[in-house]
Amino acid sequence: MEVHQVVPPPHMSTFNKLKNRFKETFFPDDPLRQFKGKSTKTKWILGAQYIFPILQWGPNYDLKLLKSDIVSGLTIASLAIPQGISYAKLASLPPIVGLYSSFVPPLIYAVLGSSRDLAVGPVSIASLIMGSMLRQEVSPATDPLLFLQLAFSSTFFAGLFQASLGFLRLGFIIDFLSKATLIGFMAGAAIIVSLQQLKSLLGITNFTNQMGIVPVLSSVFHRTNEWSWQTILMGFSFLAFLLLTRHIGIKKPKLFWVSAGAPLVSVILATLVVFASKAQHHGISVIGKLQEGLNPPSWNMLHFHGSHLGLVMKTGLITGIVSLTEGIAVGRTFAALKNYQVDGNKEMIAIGVMNIVGSSTSCYVTTGAFSRSAVNHNAGCKTAASNIIMAVTLMVTLLFLMPLFQYTPNVILGAIIVTAVVGLIDIPAAYQTWKVDKFDFIVLLCAFLGVLFISVQGGLAIAVGISIFKVLLQITRPKTVMLGNIPGTDIYRNLHQYKDAVRIPGFLILSIEAPINFANTTYLKERITRWTEDYEAEVEKTKKQSGLRFLVIDLSAVSAIDTSGISFFKELRMVLEKKGIEASQQQLQR
Amino acid sequence: MEVHQVVPPPHMSTFNKLKNRFKETFFPDDPLRQFKGKSTKTKWILGAQYIFPILQWGPNYDLKLLKSDIVSGLTIASLAIPQGISYAKLASLPPIVGLYSSFVPPLIYAVLGSSRDLAVGPVSIASLIMGSMLRQEVSPATDPLLFLQLAFSSTFFAGLFQASLGFLRLGFIIDFLSKATLIGFMAGAAIIVSLQQLKSLLGITNFTNQMGIVPVLSSVFHRTNEWSWQTILMGFSFLAFLLLTRHIGIKKPKLFWVSAGAPLVSVILATLVVFASKAQHHGISVIGKLQEGLNPPSWNMLHFHGSHLGLVMKTGLITGIVSLTEGIAVGRTFAALKNYQVDGNKEMIAIGVMNIVGSSTSCYVTTGAFSRSAVNHNAGCKTAASNIIMAVTLMVTLLFLMPLFQYTPNVILGAIIVTAVVGLIDIPAAYQTWKVDKFDFIVLLCAFLGVLFISVQGGLAIAVGISIFKVLLQITRPKTVMLGNIPGTDIYRNLHQYKDAVRIPGFLILSIEAPINFANTTYLKERITRWTEDYEAEVEKTKKQSGLRFLVIDLSAVSAIDTSGISFFKELRMVLEKKGIEASQQQLQR
What we know:
The structure is a homodimer.
Chain A: H1 14-26, H2 40-51, H3 54-57, H4 63-90, H5 95-100, H6 104-112, E1 120-121, H7 124-134, H8 144-167, H9 179-196, H10 198-202, H11 213-222, H12 229-251, H13 256-277, H14 309-338, H15 344-359, E2 367-368, H16 370-378, H17 385-401, H18 410-422, H19 427-436, H20 438-453, H21 456-476, E3 480-485, E4 492-494, E5 507-512, H22 521-542, E6 550-554, H23 563-579, E7 582-586
Parallel strand pairs in A: 5-6, 6-7
Antiparallel strand pairs in A: 1-2, 3-4, 3-5
Helix pairs in contact in A: 4-13, 4-16, 4-17, 4-18, 6-15, 6-17, 7-14, 8-14, 8-15, 9-18, 9-20, 9-21, 12-13, 12-18, 14-15, 14-16, 19-20, 20-21, 22-23
């Protein structure tokens, strides 16, 4: 057999090593690459384009693109108006805040964002979490102004946190929300949100403030005397209509406009029905008067001290992470479909700045929404200009059309929310997870049940904790497998998987399948001792093989060894030598 | 080339898979192995021996073993008496509690423990942490009874926590205190402890209660008027004597009795000097009257409710983990030297039960001490009976010799503590860490500086946090390396390390060196995109190679792929196909 020499890698100073490591950790995408070898002027232009992506696509913008963006912008606006009002109610905020939040943030995002498909505005999950967390300390019914102030302050902290993650290149933190976690979490949140809508769908006036499945259901069935048949009739008719159009939209993506337009059509229809029949006097509750005009400033409403600061920061942190996860995932999904790049850290800065500005212009937390971005994409949006079109439409609405919503019944908002969140329950994905990886399914289930029976943020925390625990477990309990020789070759393979591989008498060949570090040296010591003892016990029993003389450890799959790992090898050699076994570590011909 | 077939591993049901995984995770040492195929009676005997290791070695105990154990037991008793008094003072507890804690726990350990070398009793680090944590809420000077109650309660929770870790087979939690963390933490704690001793060594009466390096030094230099030259003279003479004997003990292990006996000799000498010169009236503070008699019961002093419960549980948790780490590490070290096995989880139960019993018999937290176990080992101990001998000696002391300590000066206790903790500063090990792994050294430094400038528990938390962060980083940022073919073979190697490996035109061969899971799929996608872009940029620049046509990913070092990992491969294939690159994943001939 020919021998190939391993040369040590080129020498690097400690500083350079740390620099390299730092770069790989925080700048894996090497954002400065494009600046290399360019003139100063080009560098400035590239720099400005890097910070404001609008400068990249803006100069080449033409009528054809505009036409596409107008169509998609109007479509998402027709969705954004009813959803904005509905989601604000989900967060226990005045409905108009939902509309404000669909006006300023899209404009900011259009300038800073690098996704061409993201439709920005309030989203269900973040609204749900913000509402349920703030309600722990302040009641929106008895102290609406304070509640609003806390919501804006939380939004500010959410934005600050999101932008910092981007600036500090710590975007990988959101990677710890695994796919399984998200599937379970979303499904649980969707059920919680839907159950909450029973309040408006059944017309109950005295409803629990809690989010758990138990208090909500008890509220529903202990208040049967408050059920209003007019509300129920109207609610479930429109719910059926919305679900049907949603189904059509999914089955035939070309008919996206059916599902996209349905909420606005429902709102108009329901409003007309109420207006014509004066149903507000017959047990159907309506939104009521909404103030006309654009977003009022709200920077004087931000709380940076006082007794609720802790709650506000915590709420900001959690809604910030959750909405960031949704926004980034949506951006990446559609970027992959259209084959362009979305820079995660840059997106975080864009979303963060958008929320910081939003918090001082009466907006609550916003991000790129799954459902609206899909509609945007299907409607043929070409650039972030579709967000500008949407914002302009919202502006017109805020300035002139507010009186129209006076008679909009709350029940229709409930139906819109249920239709929107029902899509978050992804049973095929859950089944797929079960089939592929049982442990991932357990994570999924914990997130789901945690959200249902503990709390929205509790379920999330549990699922993230289990996911990280699983990763740490893989490290603390690395697999060790026994290898055997394939006769006639010098190749060694897993005895468990290769039928023709055979053991070599006197040799125990083990492969360790993880980096060796402080977290697993103790385990490896115990496990290897057990391997050798098992081997010797077998020798004693069968009397066929010769005793154990050599232990060979294959390190092909060991990518790193730390100082504890080095001590581990020293100690292992010592222990084995006392037993009369020779130990060698090497990379085998695999 | 011959083809060897991979057969799928034998089919296992989901339940069996989970069972196997569970066993590998929590029972890697397979404790029930020895019970297999034995008669019921033998099983009972083995079971009793498993729970009470004393039944294993007790029946074979003989006079020769006893002789060895008496020598070593008396030796460690001579060390345990002065150290017990000193460490109790370190925890701001009455000196006698240190003696109580060297009487009951060793007896319990002798019955339950599986190490033959562990010398059980109070230790410096755990004493330091307990004292400094409890002082945050209660002053031992103004409310000594409450302080004592909290100390016993913390001990109870420490024991409960330790025993639970053992019962639940979660012992691997202490593995997260890496070697580097411990080196830094110990050194920092040793300096903090030594600085605290300046109070008694300089004879200062009004000393700060804080532990940080800054308040302590300012206390020292703002109180120069309180320095007492008699105390300083006595203190530093004995300190020099103790350090000298310690040095002799290290250089010549056969003269272990010199260093082992020195503390007791110092105490006797110092006490005689004070008694003869009536120095207690000339600025030298003494211990004062100590109560005669064995441990009084203290179960009625345990607090399970009230305002300090949180602090007590936290203190129990931290002192529990730290003392467990020391005890297990000491046990394993000497077991490896004498080539016998110590079962980590069983040891945890033993140490835990010892502390639970201790907490109701006026003992504070105890474990196996580094320094005393080394003396025990050098003195030739054979079984845990040396702990019984030590306990009996302590009993005699408690019953009859207490009046002798009345004139023992506090300064000598300070000197004993400094001598004991100086050995915890392991500069060669720190240097070795720097040479081997810079990141581990950073962890070490953080633990060290955190202890010095933040707090003992703060430094520990920071270091553990960084260690875990490092492990997670290895997973979130797995190495990807480019492989090349070694001409004339079908072997592929790291291009960076094998000079004779060459690239194959049109092929990009990458090896991923970590399990692929939710935490790194995003990174891998970005990184692999960069690899392909780099490749294409190079092709453009040199015009020598042909364009990229195939991407081959070597998964030899990938031991696990979760559901996110599977989506990653699907998405990667989609992205690459759009670029006209073919992707294949395989295990290469390495």
